[in-house]
Write a structure and sequence with these properties.
The chain is an alpha/beta fold. Helices cover 50% and strands 11% of the residues. The protein is elongated.
Length: 453
C-alpha cells in the first residue's frame, strides 16, 4: 500500500485530498505545516509527498529540499496557484516530480498521483532487474519425470496460486531455489518481483535493515531512507534461503510479519503494510533446531504450513538423461557453440555415480567435460577423471589411479585448477588466465602440456 504525506495549511483541502487518496487505497498522513511534515519525514518512510508551494512556516521548495535530503527517490507533487507556477517549475528542476494548479478536480490529482506511483514501480522493477540475472533464470524449469519429481510438481501446482507461505527442504544443490522460482511464476503475484535473500550470507547486524528497510538517521551511515526486501517484494514473493541460519533476534520479527502482514523499518515507529509471500528454504532439520533451542518453534509451525521436499539426485537417478540433455543445451548456449551429443556410456557413467553435490555438482562436472571435449560427443572417459578428482573421497583408489608419483599428482592438481577457471569464465582463456595469475601465453602452454587442448 503506497504511503503518501500530504501538507496543506487549508483544512478543507487537506481533508479532501486525504479522504480521496484513502478511498483509492493509499495510506495517507496529513500535516498542516512544514515543521510537522519534517518530523513525519524523519520518523517514517513515504513513497510520495504532496505539498502546497506556500506554507505558513516554510516554502514548498524548502520542504522539497529537506525531503530529498532524507530520501532522494521520494516522489514530490506540488500544489500551486496560477501566480506561483514559475516557483513550481523551478522546484521541478530541483527534483519535484510534478505539480497541479489550484483550483483542481480531485480526479485530476488522483490521476497525477497514479502516474507518479507507476514511476516508482518502474524504478523499483528496474532496480530488481539489474540486481537479478533474470536472463539466466528465464526458461528454467523443473526437469524430470521420476515419481518423486511428479509428486513435488503436484504439490507446487496445488499451492502456487494461493497466498500460503511455503517451506522448501532438501540437501544443498538439489534445486530448492528453482522450486521457489516455479511457485512464484505460477502464482498470482508473478508480475511482481521475486527477491532472494541468503540468510547466511548477510551479516546479522545488517540483516534487519536489509529485510525491513530503515529511515534516515536510524544508524551510523544511514544518510537516506531505504526500503527493505519485504517492501520491495510486496505483491510478489521473497525467497529466504538458509532460513535455519536466521539470527534468533530476527526470528521473532519475521514471525510478526507473517502473522500481521506489517513491517517496521529500523528507526521508525510507523508500521508499513506489505503483501509479500514468503518462500523459505533450508537444508537443515528445523525440528531438530527447535529441540536444540536454535530455532523458534512458533516460527517453524508458521513456515511449515505447506512443506515441499526436494529429493536428492541419487533418489531420482532415472532423471539423469533428461537433466543431462537440458543442462548440456544450457551450457552450450552459454558457451556460444553447438550442442554436444552425449553417448550412452557417458550417461551410464553418470548414472553410476552417487552425486553428493546433487544437480549443482552435475552441472559443474558437465561444464568441465564440455569445455574439455570441444565439439565432439561426450563419452565415458570424459567423466572418469572429472568425477574421481571432483570428489576423491568417493573413490578409495583415486590416488593410485591419478598417479602415485609426485609430478603426476601435481599435473592432476594443475589440470583441475585450469578446468575450474575455464568453467567459471565460460571458456574465455584470457579471463581464465587472469583469474589464475598467469599470462595468456603461460596458460596456453599448460593447456598443451596437460593435454587439455
Amino acid at each position: 500500500m503506497p504511503r503518501i504525506l500530504v501538507i496543506d495549511d487549508e483544512p478543507k483541502i487537506l481533508r479532501l485530498i486525504g479522504r480521496a487518496l484513502t478511498d483509492v487505497g493509499h495510506q495517507v498522513t496529513t500535516c498542516d505545516n512544514g515543521e510537522q511534515a519534517m518530523r513525519e519525514l524523519s520518523a517514517s518512510g513515504f513513497d510520495m509527498m504532496i505539498s502546497d508551494v506556500r506554507l505558513p512556516d516554510c516554502s514548498g521548495e524548502d520542504l522539497l529540499e529537506y525531503a530529498k535530503s532524507i530520501d532522494p527517490d521520494l516522489q514530490v507533487i506540488l500544489i500551486t496557484a496560477y501566480g506561483t507556477v514559475s516557483q513550481a517549475v523551478n522546484a521541478m528542476r530541483k527534483g519535484a516530480s510534478d505539480y497541479i494548479l489550484k483550483p483542481f478536480e480531485i480526479d485530476a490529482l488522483i490521476s497525477i498521483v497514479a502516474k507518479n506511483l507507476e514511476n516508482i514501480r518502474l524504478r523499483d522493477d528496474l532496480m530488481i532487474l539489474k540486481s537479478e540475472r533474470m536472463d539466466e533464470r528465464a526458461g528454467r524449469r523443473i526437469t524430470g519425470n521420476s515419481e518423486q519429481i511428479r509428486h513435488m510438481k503436484e504439490l507446487i501446482g496445488a499451492v502456487a496460486a494461493l497466498p500460503t507461505n511455503v517451506l522448501v527442504t532438501g540437501k544443498s544443490g538439489t534445486g530448492k531455489e528453482l522450486v521457489a522460482e516455479t511457485i512464484h511464476a505460477l502464482g498470482a503475484g508473478s508480475q511482481r518481483p521475486l527477491l532472494r535473500v541468503n540468510c547466511l550470507a548477510i551479516p546479522s547486524d545488517l540483516m534487519e535493515s536489509q529485510l525491513f528497510g530503515h529511515v534516515r538517521g536510524a544508524f551510523t551511515g544511514a544518510h537516506t531512507s531505504k526500503k527493505g526486501y519485504f517492501e520491495l517484494a510486496s505483491g510478489g514473493s521473497l525467497f529466504l534461503d538458509e532460513i535455519g541460519d536466521l539470527p534468533m533476534e530476527l526470528q521473532g520479527k519475521l514471525l510478526r510479519v507473517l502473522e500481521e502482514g506489517t513491517i517496521t523499518p529500523v528507526g521508525s515507529t510507523t508500521p508499513v503494510t506489505v503483501q509479500t509471500r514468503v518462500i523459505a528454504a533450508t537444508n537443515a532439520d528445523l525440528a531438530e533446531k527447535c529441540a536444540a533451542g536454535k530455532f523458534r518453534e512458533d516460527l517453524y509451525f508458521r513456515l511449515n504450513v505447506f512443506p515441499i521436499h526436494v529429493p536428492t539426485l541419487a533418489e531420482r537417478i532415472e532423471d539423469i538423461p533428461e537433466l543431462v540433455r537440458d543442462l548440456t543445451e544450457s551450457i552450450c548456449k552459454k558457451l556460444g557453440r553447438p550442442v554436444n551429443d552425449v553417448s550412452k556410456d557417458a550417461l551410464d557413467a553418470m548414472k553410476a555415480y552417487p552425486w553428493p553435490g546433487n544437480v549443482r555438482e552435475l552441472r559443474n562436472v558437465l561444464e568441465r567435460a564440455l569445455i574439455l571435449a570441444g565439439n565432439r560427443p561426450l563419452v565415458a572417459d570424459d567423466f572418469k577423471c572429472l568425477l574421481r578428482t571432483t570428489t576423491p573421497h568417493c573413490c578409495p583408489c583415486a590416488a593410485e589411479r591419478e598417479g602415485s608419483n609426485f609430478n603426476e599428482r601435481v599435473d592432476v592438481f594443475k589440470k583441475n585448477m585450469i578446468l575450474d577457471a575455464l568453467a567459471k569464465t565460460n571458456g574465455v582463456k584470457k579471463d581464465a588466465a587472469d583469474s589464475l595469475g598467469l599470462s595468456p601465453r603461460a596458460l596456453s602452454h599448460h593447456l598443451k602440456t596437460l593435454g587439455i587442448e
